[in-house]
Amino acid sequence: MKGLENRSFIPNLSFDCVIFGFNGKLLKILILEYQNTGVYALPGGFIEIDQSIDDAAKQGVKERTGLDNVYLDQFYIFGNVDRADPEHMERILTANNDNTKENSWMLERFNTVGYYALINYEEVTPTPDEYSDSIKWYAIDELPKLMMDHNNIVEKALQVLRSNLSEKLIGMNLLPSKFTMKQLQMVFEAVLDQKLRRTTFQRKMLSLDILERHEKLFQGKAHKAPYQYSFK
Amino acid sequence: MKGLENRSFIPNLSFDCVIFGFNGKLLKILILEYQNTGVYALPGGFIEIDQSIDDAAKQGVKERTGLDNVYLDQFYIFGNVDRADPEHMERILTANNDNTKENSWMLERFNTVGYYALINYEEVTPTPDEYSDSIKWYAIDELPKLMMDHNNIVEKALQVLRSNLSEKLIGMNLLPSKFTMKQLQMVFEAVLDQKLRRTTFQRKMLSLDILERHEKLFQGKAHKAPYQYSFK
DNA sequence: GCCTATTGTCTCATTTTATGACAATAATCC
DNA sequence: GGATTATTGTCATAAAATGAGACAATAGGC
Predict the structure, then answer these.
(1) Sorting pLDDT into bands at 50, 70 and 90, what band is B126?
(2) Which of A25, A55, B127, B180 could serve as a FRET partner for A62 with CA atoms 20 to 30 Å apart?
């Protein structure tokens, strides 16, 4: 929402991003808190009149994470009439001394396009925008209450991610470019929320012929060092 | 687009429906032709300011097919800037003596929410709306050139339908409530565009425990009569 | 050099899917 | 009414995928 005053946006339409990261153990998402309000929300924004929705979302992710070329997938548009929440929005605007006539369009009914992003947790420095107090990682099962229907958006994003994980083989976007088989398995386990069998998982992944094997990773541990892989 | 003049719509947002039907052999979709223009398009429309997008789409399908309670699934929002096509729209409006100042918002950039519907071909009487000359079934591989990016929307709808067909078991929505195993197989073959093995298909469908078996269907043919099934 | 935890790879059992075989049957033809 | 024909429901066997465990090969600790 940077520089709102100088730009012209498509009315009644926004986007919201569920940005997934994996810290080695847990699946997390980025949640921001609006200044002086205690309101938690997904990072999102508006679409400029001459900007594609995808570009707007890309830009939003970049502003919040500093990352370019992120795996980003549009998964649903939330278009119920009752998802508008002018009270919350008014609190946010008032807290920023922006509750002006020119900004009153933000209090109208909004449809929002849901995106999910998969990023490499290690490469990210979450950056609050001018409206936000903080932007932080939250484990997927320890989310605060979010504004409007954002909890619902997260739920749907997670469903889509789960069903796409094996089909589209996108799990590696949550990892550094080189990773071990164990790391990959832990990503699958975190996303699907179930334990997988090591040998079966390994055989399956190798049989798909999508991984390239690299040198071993010596972790300084008292056991055999695992190979590293990258996505072909 | 009935009664445009008396309603207030969300700007820059529309919906378009890919309405699938199955005539016993081929997968078809409903395409309309605007009056006096030679322009072919998907049935679509706009969203009223106090109407959910789903409801708008439902209403659109009902106006075109007369059917209520249709299987309808939102699958994507097309949000590129270059998908606007003011020339085509102007031709349509001019042909209807509607190219007025009040309607000039229709010439702006539009994002469109894509829906696909699955309906029972036999129950439908396609009805043109006030802007359309005709609305007709076209086999999926014999579509005319459609306006804007509508061919692209159809392509994407077909992809989503294919990937959802087995997963969500929605194929029966293209059939009457009672159908034979052979009919069901032909739906799958038409959608997936590939031959399936009879015995494997039958065993799979029965093992899913989603079908209820009814009385046999005597077609007056010189062979064993097949059972009829319905979706549980 | 022995111990420990983890990894890569086999083996064998189990389940699922592919492919073909075959008897049952509804109408037609003599 | 009995032989004929096309299709259906179901079974039998082969092939492929997956589950579950065994085991030898390490990398570093002691």
Answers:
(1) confident
(2) A25
Six-digit token string for A135: 């932007």
Mind listing the pLDDT tens digit for each residue in A177-232? 999 999 999 999 999 999 999 999 999 999 999 999 999 999 999 899 999 999 98
pTM confidence score: 0.92
How far apart, in Å, are the Cα atoms of A127 and each of A93, A121, A207, B63, B144? 20, 14, 40, 48, 49
**Mean residue pLDDT across chain A:** 92
Quote the tokens at residue A211.
């991984």
Percentage of the residues of chain B whose pLDDT score is greater than 90: 72
Of B49, B54, B167, the CB nearest to A109: B49
Q: What is the pLDDT of residue A194?
A: 95
Residue–nucleotide distance: A207 CA to C9 C1' (Å): 14
Interface with A, mutate which of B58, B59, B109, B111 (most A CBs under 10 A): B111
Query: What pLDDT does B4 receive?
Result: 55
Query: Cα–Cα distance between B131 and B133 in angstroms, integer?
Result: 7
Beta pairing class for B179-180 and B132-139: unpaired
pLDDT at B2: 45
Looking up tokens 């249709």, which residue turns up?
B70
What is the pLDDT averaged over residues A7-21?
Answer: 94
Contacts of A10 in chain B (CB under 8 A): 11-13, 109, 111
Q: What count of other Cβ atoms lies within 10 Å of the Cβ of residue A59? A: 16
Q: What is the C-alpha to C-alpha distance for residues B230 and B176, in angstroms, rounded to an integer?
A: 9
Ramachandran assignment for A151, one of left (phi > 0), alpha (psi -120 to 50 degrees), beta (any other): alpha
What is the rounded (10 degree) CA torsion for A43, A104, A50, B107?
A: 130
Residue type, A213: R
CA atom of B167 to C1′ atom of C16, Å: 17
Provide DSSP, B80-130.
Answer: -GGG--HHHHHHHHHHTT---GGGGGGGS--EEEEEEEE--GGG------T
